[in-house]
């Protein structure tokens, strides 16, 4: 397994990411996760849609909460062919509870708890914490990476304007 350092920190401490370094122009790798009803989901389930994939450590933290709420708001102004996926290692039951309490209705939450398929394929699994790093990927309808952002400090929010601009550039 490839290990990469010098990309992110958590509370100022350097962390190691497991998996490959994806680049703009790469074909996005397939992954296997589950939705809040424990149904299997993969990248193929969203074929043809422009995808914002937001990788977060846990919805039950203030920054992940704020980020997912913000993407839920942003999704309201995007066309129907854009889907926002938030992936974490939270259990699907916790994701469902959190979405209900937060009123999230435009973001699809998915759990990578079973085998870390997404985290390892996208190079966002933090070795020291076994959580996903805060990263955002924008994929076009054909599954090509058109934008990516590894937030340098895991406890900081992403650059939302850059993500939305990347989506609008594809539209």
UniProtKB/TrEMBL annotation:
EC numbers for this chain: 1.11.1.24
Annotated keywords: Antioxidant, Disulfide bond, Oxidoreductase, Peroxidase, Redox-active center
Annotated catalysed reactions: a hydroperoxide + [thioredoxin]-dithiol = an alcohol + [thioredoxin]-disulfide + H2O
UniProt KW Disulfide bond keyword: yes
Superkingdom, taxonomy of origin: Bacteria
Signal peptide limits: none
CDD domains: PRX_Atyp2cys
Top-rank EC class of the record's enzyme: oxidoreductase
Residues the record marks as active site: 64
Domain Thioredoxin: 22-171
GO function terms (MF aspect): peroxidase activity
Family the entry assigns: Belongs to the peroxiredoxin family. Tpx subfamily.
Record function comment: Thiol-specific peroxidase that catalyzes the reduction of hydrogen peroxide and organic hydroperoxides to water and alcohols, respectively. Plays a role in cell protection against oxidative stress by detoxifying peroxides.
Subunit and interaction comment: Homodimer.
PANTHER family, A to Z: THIOL PEROXIDASE (PTHR43110)
NCBIfam families: PRK00522.1 (NF001808)
Protein name: Thiol peroxidase
